[in-house]
Amino acid sequence: MIRALYSLVMSGAQPLLRRKLRRRGEAEPGYLEAVDERFGRYSGPARPGALWIHAVSLGETRAAAILVGALRRREPGLRLLLTHGTATGRAEGARLLREGDTQAWLPWDTPGAVARFLDHFRPCAGALMETEVWPNLTAACARRGVPLALANARLSAKSLGQALRIAALARPAYGALAAVWAQTEADAQRLAQVGARVSGVFGNLKFDAQPDAALLDRGRAWRQALGQPVVMFASSREGEEAEFFRVLQADRELAHAGRARGAIDATAPGVRWLVVPRHPQRFDEVAALAAQAGFRVSRRSGWSDLAGPADAAEIWIGDSLGEMPLYYGLADVALLGGSFAPLGGQNLIEAAACGCPVVMGPHTFNFAEAAQLAEAAGAAVRVGSMDDGVRQAADLLAGTGRPAASAQAALAFAGAHRGAAERTARALLELAAPRP
């Protein structure tokens, strides 16, 4: 009964979805691509039997890329169906495609759209990445005998509370999954509370990511040539950048009030500030915020690959996709985006794999265990506010030997938690294998 009511609401909201897609498409044209697929209408033939992986957005697609690599090592001729929900996810996913693979939007979760999706593609099995559990989708897969897993699964305490408030809808949705492979024991316990049958705790796929060596080396070469410390605000989110610029602006005003240096510059003289926004559609906005705060701005899109960042600018903006290893190589320490506002934090594992220590704010519930382990290993430091974060980063730079020691701790932390990709690939291939 509750799912019928949910389906009615989802069906009635379709005109609103079309309007939202048009608005999003004004800023990100990718949202205007193949709009009919959002409603389960697909053009062209589809060869049945592909292994289906759903990665809603950019972060999930990057995790899926690690899994795809492990799957292809085991089954080189594997055909994949990749589905997404955001334009950045779809653009990133296109880089994973090989001959015989297919890419599409996952449809809006109505019974008709889901049925058309499954009728068209007829996958042998599917894996939803991390959190994407939809009631009609899981029910339809279970009814049709399509094994559907939740891979790299996580569920924060906040999300658990939300799911339990709609338990009549959430429990059947999680219960219909054929397998759930959790990142941590804590995730497994929370997933079980909402009705999932957890099949294993495999760890976080993102620990198995290998940063692009060429990009990492280029960033490190730029840092060495610069000869000045660099602090990066990595994967910053809306609202956080304005607070970050406020802290830097206030410190500059201390210097203008008659002091030779502000508190930050006195601790770490000549520090350079790099901001890499989480969402590419906000690159222009963040650059404008920095300029409005009175800072000279230079953007990565204007840099030479040989010369590197513009030395005269006070704020550098990392306005490119796929270059996080370069930015982490350039930085001595990184502030963790999404952790200074109640957004749950972004992925700190990539920073660790690049040997870049992290200063994180109070909000890391999306990656709670990884944040705790990083802190315990000396790869990350937790602070309570943006003011404290900026000053802690400067303190790390100032401490004798501390940046190098923290970088080594970050690399050791990343290396100690690998292996989830092979475990997940093996389990997913077993799930997809034909039953006798």
TrEMBL record:
Site location (Transition state stabilizer): 130, 206
InterPro entries hit by this protein: Glycos_transf_N, Glycos_transf_N_sf, Kdotransferase
Catalytic activity: lipid IVA (E. coli) + CMP-3-deoxy-beta-D-manno-octulosonate = alpha-Kdo-(2->6)-lipid IVA (E. coli) + CMP + H(+)
GO molecular function, one term: Kdo transferase activity
A GO cellular component entry from the record: plasma membrane
Catalytic residue list: 60 (proton acceptor)
Record GO biological process: lipid A biosynthetic process; lipopolysaccharide core region biosynthetic process
Enzyme Commission number(s) from the entry: 2.4.99.12
Main location: membrane
Function: Involved in lipopolysaccharide (LPS) biosynthesis. Catalyzes the transfer of 3-deoxy-D-manno-octulosonate (Kdo) residue(s) from CMP-Kdo to lipid IV(A), the tetraacyldisaccharide-1,4'-bisphosphate precursor of lipid A.
Keyword Membrane appears in the UniProt entry: yes
PANTHER family: 3-DEOXY-D-MANNO-OCTULOSONIC ACID TRANSFERASE, MITOCHONDRIAL-RELATED, 3-DEOXY-MANNO-OCTULOSONATE CYTIDYLYLTRANSFERASE
Subcellular location, record wording: Cell membrane
Pathway where this protein functions: Bacterial outer membrane biogenesis; LPS core biosynthesis
Domain 3-deoxy-D-manno-octulosonic-acid transferase N-terminal: 34-209
Enzyme class: transferase
Protein name according to UniProt: 3-deoxy-D-manno-octulosonic acid transferase
TM helices/strands, residue ranges: none
Native organism: Ramlibacter tataouinensis (strain ATCC BAA-407 / DSM 14655 / LMG 21543 / TTB310)
Domain of life assignment: Bacteria
Keyword terms: Cell membrane, Lipopolysaccharide biosynthesis, Membrane, Transferase
UniProt KW Ribosomal protein keyword: no
Family note: Belongs to the glycosyltransferase group 1 family.
